[in-house]
Amino acid sequence: MSEFKYVGSELELFSAVHNWKSYWSTQIAPFIRGDVLEVGAGIGANTSYLSRGHEHRWVCVEPDPQLAEQLSANVGQNCEVACGTVQTLQGQKFDTVLYIDVLEHIEDDRKELEAAATILGTGGHVVVLAPAHQRLYTPFDKAIGHFRRYDRATLRRLSPDGLELRRMCYLDSAGLLLSGANRLFLRQSMPTKEQLRVWDSYVIPVSKVLDRCFCGRLGKSIIAVWRKQ
Known about the structure:
Layout: H1 11-14, H2 18-28, E1 35-39, H3 47-50, E2 57-62, H4 65-75, E3 80-83, E4 94-100, H5 109-118, E5 120-131, H6 139-143, H7 152-157, E6 163-171, H8 173-186, H9 193-214, E7 221-228
Parallel strand pairs: 1-2, 1-4, 2-3, 4-5
Antiparallel strand pairs: 5-7, 6-7
Helix pairs in contact: 2-9
């Protein structure tokens, strides 16, 4: 079997969007506890925003060997790092399984969540953050290996047996307008650093206010949380 190679080139670029990472991480923080598995952890750019230091164990799994090596260098002192997939960790049990901008990269997403359910302990949570709305699929999505974007209906249909959907909401309602503009006019395969800086510095603070007003009904990203009964 050939080694997995991640096709995207955006990880370093997006590592600097601190406002956005701080925002979504606070939304899912109540569901993170105990033994935690972060799937597709990449270079570890999200780990510091997710881990609050009170977890019992934190495992980062990444299928790309080169990224796993970089991941180990970045977070290895505080986390366990494994090169592989959820299937690599079968037989272990976790209280939280995280997919942060990862599920859209996996072709058989239903099978993936079913595998996550098998390693989840009773009362544990599977948490997904993903890009929203298939109509916003752009050359950027294709360039970084996205098979799809999600909405409430498509994520609800993926609910594994034995898991109850506890929360679902959209985030970044102001960014939804920018994504629509890119879809219609710019059609970029990769945003620039300046575009990301403007979005992170000026759009995300607006979204924090608007998202509360819209009660999570609008946004360019979606969060879903399942709990094992």
